[in-house]
Amino acid sequence: MKLQQLICILSFLLIGACKNVNPPKQDAFNIELYPKKKEYHIGETLQIKVVNPKFEGKIVKISYQFHHQELVVTNENIVLENLMLGKQPLEVTVYTDKGEVYKVRKEILLLAGQAPKLYTYKILNEYPHDKQAYTQGLEFIGDTLVESTGQYRESSIRKWNPFTGEMYKNVPLQAMYFGEGATVFRDKIIQLTWRENIGFVYDTQLKLLKTFSYNKSKEGWGLCHNGSDKLYKSDGSEKIWILNPNTFEEVDSLQLCTNKSIFTNANELEFVDGKIYANTYLKDGIMIINPNNGAIEGVVDVRGLKEKVEQTPDLDVLNGIAYHARRSTFFITGKNWSKIFEVVFIEANNK
What we know:
By secondary structure, the protein is mainly beta. The chain folds into 2 domains: 83 residues, Immunoglobulins (Immunoglobulin-like, Sandwich); 231 residues, Methylamine Dehydrogenase, Chain H, CATH 2.130.10. The chain is 5% helix and 50% strand. The chain has 1 helix and 28 strands. The strands form 6 sheets. The chain has an 8-stranded mixed β-sheet with strand order 22-23-24-25-9-28-27-26, with no helix packed on it. A 5-stranded mixed β-sheet has the order 2-8-7-4-5, with no helix packed on it. The longest helix has 19 residues. It is elongated, with a radius of gyration of 26 Å.
């Protein structure tokens, strides 16, 4: 066989193979959603149509995924429930009787089904707090507070008793690190840094054991855990990242949503009774977040606390929330605040 003929045959076979693997664009399917809206809410029923007017073959199966979760679609309808909120991919795979597979994707905005409940607070006690401490992370071990502080050349990880004021240990970070959120998971203390893309793991005596790097998250802000198999990490964006507590790999993320919008700036975090409590950066408010889907189910108005501390030139925003399990109370402070407040949250009139 002549070389030119062989090249022609091989070219024909390759073109045919490519056509089966990657169907032409004019054969692609489209996703149509009804009702047509810019945003949808948990609890709504959505009609999904997969269309291609030029397709003349037979479809044998269509599968649907939303944020990597298989959807059950009945008569082209789905009830939007038990799904992750935010801007999420709806992915459809079409299988034909000829063995062809077509994939199509559409992003939709899914918001919470209800407005967040409103809460206020009641002060039970006030305790002295180091006004030189730029608080970034706060969590109890018994009656001992583990506190992470920030600012370059001033960052630290420390343990102290708010009831007696005794400082048990204060370990400074190297000047290149800006300390951020911290949490106590099992017998380890985990501390984030801001933009240095590194986290520190200590034993309970603040001896450094190892470090870890971030992955997709852009910065380190707040950190907490659910007591069993997940760490939650904020980075100032609309996301709270879900980490494997053994490898620190970012395995998934939540997007913070109310029934009206996506929100950003979750800062210091605390996990209490199945919910994430998050200081909101630059706001005198605390978000109460459902860790299963990212819904902001409550907002605590803590205005007025900052005015009760010493008004120094370095006084900064609210940041620092720790739950004392035995007392069933929250301890709240801020960056360079002279006091830490023991409070309970009270549901406001939500009419």
